[in-house]
Each structure stands twice: as structure tokens, then as C-alpha cells.
Amino acid sequence: MLVAERQQYSYYPQYDQQHEKGRQEVPTQTVLPREQAREKTGEQVKPKTKGKIMPMLMLIGMFAFSCLVVGRYAIINQNHQNILKLENALEQEKSRQENLRVELAVCGDLNRIEKVAKEDLGMDYPTKDQVQVVSLFNDSPSEVEKTEHIQHSKKTIIERIIDMIN
Q1: What pLDDT, in 10s, does the model give residues 55-71?
Q2: Which residue from 25, 49, 29 is spatially nearest to 37, judged by alpha carbons?
Q3: What is the pLDDT along the chain (166 residues), one digit of tens a residue?
Q4: Under 8 Å between Cβ of 7 and 28
Q5: What's the CA gap between 28 and 6, in Å, rounded?
Q6: How far apart are CA 32 and CA 54, in angstroms?
Q7: Which letter, b or e, does each residue of 101-129 get, where b requires 16 or more Cβ atoms within 10 Å of its Cβ?
Q8: What is the DSSP letter of 122?
Q9: Closest CA to 107 of 120, 119, 116
């Protein structure tokens, strides 16, 4: 049976230096790094590409996924901002529509219309002389002549008023 010599390894170099001074020198075997040991034995070192490629691919995949997530959040935020703008515009249009409804209700009031017509425009109810009743019967030639006569008399009244103003 073959037994290896015991070697004492030290992890603290300053501790190792202090004890070497007081200790006798014991012949120890030199420890070579792995590459040097393989070179001496003639083995060729194969690069560990599989062990390096997988973590890099995972890192690239995680980066791509995180970019995708951040991009989606950016799109969601942009859509949210557009929704807020549209809701604000909708509220403004509802307010405008309500104002128009109030204005329409005020303008549609018959008492207000009468007041504006009398005060601002100087209008008044027509007198009995200004009212003309026209009844239309079947379109016989005599009836058509009567309506033409009425229209002709209206034109002459308007022309008379214009002549009086001039």
C-alpha cells in the first residue's frame, strides 16, 4: 500500500512566515497548477464552452425578456395617458353640451321670445287689417287667379311701402 506524505497547508501567509523561522525545513513536494500538470502528462486542455455558453444564453434571454416587459409597460402607460386625455375631452364636451341645452331651453321659452321680439325688434301682434285668411280649394283656374291676385296685391303693398320710404 502506498501512502502520501502529509503536508500542512496554511491559509494565512503571515502566520506561515512566522512559524517557518522557528521550524525545521522538511522536504515537501511542490504542487503544480492543473495546467502545468496536464502539460507534463501530455493531456490537452479542452475549453469548457458548454459551461460558458448556457449562462450567457440565459443572461441574454433574461435581458430580452426584461426589455419586452419594460416595453409593454411603456405601451400600457402611453395608452393610459391617451385614455386620460380622451376622458378629459369627453368631460369638456359633456359640459359644453349641457351649456347648449340650458341655452336652448332659455331660447325656446315662448315668453322670452315674445319679449325679445317686442323690445329688441319692435314687433307687435298683427292687427285685424294685417291678417289675411286664404283657403285653397281644388286647383281650378278661378282659384289660381284669386291666389295670384292676392300675391299681386301683397307685392303692391310692399312696393308702396318702399315708395313711401324713398
Answers
A1: 899 999 999 999 999 99
A2: 29
A3: 566 666 666 566 665 555 555 555 555 555 555 656 555 565 565 666 667 888 899 999 999 999 999 999 999 999 999 999 999 999 999 999 999 999 888 777 888 888 888 888 888 888 888 888 877 666 555 655 665 556 555 556 777 777 777 6
A4: yes
A5: 9
A6: 30
A7: eeeeeeeeeeeeeeeeeeeeeeeeeeeee
A8: -
A9: 116
Angstrom distance (rounded) from CA 9 to CA 7: 6
Are the C-beta atoms of 136 and 143 separated by less than 8 Å?
Answer: yes
Give the C-alpha separation, 10 to 18, whole Å: 12
Q: Which three cell numbers stand for residue 93?
A: 364636451
112, 118 in Cβ contact below 8 A? Answer: no
Whether the CA torsion 67, 70, 76, 79 is positive or negative: it is negative
CB contact at 8 A, 147 and 134: yes
Cα separation of 90 and 98, whole Å? 12
